[in-house]
């Protein structure tokens, strides 16, 4: 002990192209941006594939081959897998190679990387089932551990995940939910019987995901043996060290020239130098360790920003109106029974759309500015709302009644 | 410091900018002797003001001849109509050179460390003063001849005066990166010699009485889209009208208000008729003060389709009232604002689609009303003054 548990999030949204008011009623293709801008989904996917997915997968496969004790896990959004199938089959194949080793677990989430838990529990359950089906079809495995979009979590999320058949769930190990407790144990969510809760060790995770290349950081440059020594410090007061991060950390957020791939390549041998350490997948952790205590999380927590709450996607007037507009269409969409309308509606639920509408730009909001492919949150909102309006008109035309 | 106009007798942003800068500098402990070409009321703001011609006081139509935004061609047209007895000399260039002659005596009697001059009208005066005292010369650029002519044909004489001013200056100050690019690319000035000092803004006066025509429009449930600025090529009022046509086709309840006057007045009225939008358009004339504030506050959207806008103070005014704004990317103010929409001035469809979105989705107005005033409040003249002071200190220490 402790076991290092790696989970990487792999997701790309279908970004809404610059969709003008004058497109409404004429143009039903919301996601086919073709310019040289940051709303061309194919172009972005190909870029990230070259910088991150392909080299990172090569690195990971090499690590798995050299270290029989090495483990990792991924959560793939369905919209990522769909884009991989269309834009870069080689990327999908390289992920399948990893999963085929039997030492890489695939987690469950909503197909559309959506906020549907907040909008419609029925829709949430359907999207979770869709993602499970997609994973089964592409990888031949069934997700047993759940992670909600952006690690949005509360007792209720855990309770519903348990009802949907999951045996584990992931969450942010935020200070305000843990208090004096440590993230380095397995917990039992309030109101559940079987499901285990794994919490992100955000200090060690963020050392890699955010601080790795920061020259202003006292620990820069971070070597694998230094990092392993921090893992060793958990020895005796924790069963697991959960390192949760976006997969784009490798090569995209931290560029290759920062040495991030070399760091990863050397991490297993440095961690395994200590005889008590090993690596584990989330399911292995849950099989090995019984929950040490119940953890009560009545309010939503997430892994975003310093607030670790929902304010990156909810709360400003743009986000709230957009959210209401898309979920208002649930009933007419379901009633239409039209697969194309259903698909467009679901792709409009992806959390990123709401993230791009975030206006808290002047403190930690700089992160939003960096990741925002639109010129402003107002542009993001406008293209989005125009697309939703077009979808509404299509439903009205089809249903023949006012929606 | 050499200026050409000063509030309340200003025709636009140049006077407002000079006032803001002088107040900021004075508050920061810099003593400013402000020079104006002729006697005028300066509202008691200036501690030390000198008039190059202390005897002439200009009023009415003759004052219009001193409008710093006139292109030379427009000046010649106007001066034909003017009262010839009120002034000597018929060319604006003559006035500028005469101002320079007077500057010599002022420089000899007024102790100073730096000479700072605002726009081409004052560069010959500033250069003369600097030559007399041997003190460094700062050429501040609020607009170039390319801006004034809407990227049309610049007057060769004015261009030559500007270029000579920039070349002789120890430091050039541009009000935006947009203007700096123009100075570097079109006047051949090394980029390292041009500093950018964005204008600040004062909180606009509290809203006063709403003009009756706006009250009437609101009673009818009209959506009001506002243009504020001089009616000249530079400000793109014709693009505003073409945008209006696109918007009105979708939203018959939209009403467009043009606040300002200028040499395109007649042309725009013809254009409105030609576009068939005259019923959806009001020419409100030049509004100022608390009345203008009231109009901002009543507006549903504001558009600034400037063709070439070195800064664009009215955009910050609109933001300070939380009005959803669509601002030309060909402007300096778009470099310091994020809580607004931006469009290329020629992209009438883009501007129209953004105005239509503002009218359709109330969350935009709600969100911008929360965020934009905070952003406008961050643009202080103190910050502009601090940067100018740093430039002075560097020049003095050389």
From TrEMBL, chain A:
GO terms for biological process: carbohydrate metabolic process. Keywords: Carbohydrate metabolism. SUPFAM superfamilies: Glycoside hydrolase/deacetylase. InterPro entries: GH57_Enzymes, Glyco_hydro/deAcase_b/a-brl, Glyco_hydro_57_N. The keyword Glycosyltransferase does not apply. Coiled coil: none annotated. It comes from the Bacteria. Gene3D superfamilies: 3.20.110.20. GO terms for molecular function: catalytic activity. Residues 6-298 form the Glycoside hydrolase family 57 N-terminal domain. The keyword Aminoacyl-tRNA synthetase does not apply. Belongs to the glycosyl hydrolase 57 family. This is Alpha-amylase. It comes from Candidatus Uhrbacteria bacterium RIFCSPHIGHO2_02_FULL_60_10.
């Amino acid at each position: 002990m402790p076991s290092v548990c790696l989970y990487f999030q792999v997701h790309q949204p279908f970004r809404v192209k610059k969709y003008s008011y004058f497109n409404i009623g004429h143009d039903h293709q919301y996601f086919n941006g073709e310019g040289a801008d940051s709303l061309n989904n194919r172009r972005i996917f190909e870029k990230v594939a070259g910088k991150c997915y392909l080299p990172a997968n090569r690195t990971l496969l090499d690590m798995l081959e050299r270290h029989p004790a090495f483990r990792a896990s991924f959560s793939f959004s369905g919209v990522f897998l769909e884009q991989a199938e269309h834009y870069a089959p080689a990327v999908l194949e390289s992920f399948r190679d990893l999963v085929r080793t039997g030492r890489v677990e695939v987690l469950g989430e909503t197909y559309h990387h959506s906020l549907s838990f907040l909008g419609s529990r029925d829709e949430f359950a359907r999207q979770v089932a869709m993602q499970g089906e997609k994973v089964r079809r592409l990888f031949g495995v069934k997700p047993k551990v759940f992670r909600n979009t952006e690690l949005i979590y509360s007792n209720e999320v855990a309770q519903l995940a348990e009802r949907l058949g999951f045996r584990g769930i992931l969450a942010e190990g935020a200070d305000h939910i843990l208090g004096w407790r440590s993230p380095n144990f397995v917990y039992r969510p309030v109101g559940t019987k079987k499901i285990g809760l794994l919490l992100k060790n955000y200090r060690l995770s963020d050392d890699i995901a955010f601080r790795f290349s920061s020259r202003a950081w006292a620990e820069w440059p971070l070597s694998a043996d230094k990092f392993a020594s921090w893992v060793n410090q958990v020895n005796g007061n924790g069963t697991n060290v959960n390192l949760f991060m976006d997969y784009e950390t490798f090569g995209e957020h931290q560029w290759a020239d920062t040495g991030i791939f070399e760091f990863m390549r050397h991490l297993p041998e440095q961690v395994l130098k200590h005889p008590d350490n090993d690596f584990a997948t989330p399911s292995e952790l849950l099989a090995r360790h019984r929950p040490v205590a119940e953890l009560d999380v009545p309010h939503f927590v997430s892994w975003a920003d310093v607030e670790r709450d929902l304010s990156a996607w909810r709360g400003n007037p743009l986000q709230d109106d957009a959210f209401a507009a898309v979920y208002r269409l649930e009933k007419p969409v379901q009633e239409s029974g039209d697969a194309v309308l259903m698909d467009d509606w679901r792709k409009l639920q992806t959390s990123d759309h709401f993230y791009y509408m975030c206006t808290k730009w002047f403190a930690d909001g700089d992160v939003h500015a960096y990741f925002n492919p639109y010129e402003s949150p107002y542009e993001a909102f406008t293209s989005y709302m125009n697309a939703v309006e077009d979808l509404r008109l299509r439903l009205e035309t089809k249903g023949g009644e006012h929606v | 410091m050499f200026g050409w106009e000063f509030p309340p007798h200003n025709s636009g942003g140049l006077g407002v900018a000079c006032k803001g800068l002088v107040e900021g500098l004075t508050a920061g402990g810099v003593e400013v002797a402000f020079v104006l070409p002729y006697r005028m009321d300066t509202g008691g703001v200036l501690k030390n003001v000198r008039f190059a011609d202390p005897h002439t006081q200009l009023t009415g139509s003759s004052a219009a001849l001193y409008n710093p935004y006139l292109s030379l061609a427009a000046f010649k047209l106007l001066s034909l109509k003017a009262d010839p007895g009120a002034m000597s000399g018929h060319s604006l260039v003559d006035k500028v050179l005469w101002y320079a002659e007077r500057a010599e005596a002022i420089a000899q009697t007024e102790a100073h460390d730096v000479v700072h001059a605002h726009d081409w009208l004052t560069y010959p005066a500033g250069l003369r003063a600097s030559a007399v005292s041997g003190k460094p010369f700062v050429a501040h650029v609020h607009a170039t001849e390319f801006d004034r002519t809407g990227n049309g044909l610049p007057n060769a004489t004015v261009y030559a005066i500007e270029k000579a001013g920039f070349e002789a200056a120890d430091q050039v100050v541009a009000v935006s990166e947009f203007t700096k690019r123009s100075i570097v690319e079109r006047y051949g000035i090394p980029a390292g010699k041009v500093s950018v000092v964005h204008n600040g803004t004062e909180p606009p006066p509290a809203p006063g009485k709403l003009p009756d025509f706006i009250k009437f429009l609101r009673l009818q449930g009209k959506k009001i889209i506002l243009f504020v600025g001089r009616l000249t090529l530079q400000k793109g009022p014709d693009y505003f009208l073409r945008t209006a046509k696109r918007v009105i086709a979708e939203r018959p309840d939209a009403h467009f208000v043009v606040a300002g006057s200028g040499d395109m007045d007649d042309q725009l009225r013809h254009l409105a008729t030609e576009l068939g939008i005259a019923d959806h358009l009001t020419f409100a004339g030049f509004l100022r003060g608390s009345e203008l504030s009231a109009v901002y506050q009543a507006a549903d959207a504001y558009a600034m389709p400037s063709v070439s806008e070195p800064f664009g103070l009215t955009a910050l005014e609109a933001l300070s009232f939380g009005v959803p704004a669509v601002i030309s990317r060909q402007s300096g103010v778009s470099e310091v604002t994020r809580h607004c929409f931006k469009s290329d001035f020629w992209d009438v469809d883009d501007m129209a689609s953004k105005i239509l979105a503002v009218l359709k989705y109330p969350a935009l107005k709600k969100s911008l009303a929360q965020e934009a005033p905070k952003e406008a409040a961050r643009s202080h003249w103190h910050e502009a003054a601090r940067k100018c002071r740093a430039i002075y200190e560097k020049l003095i220490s050389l």
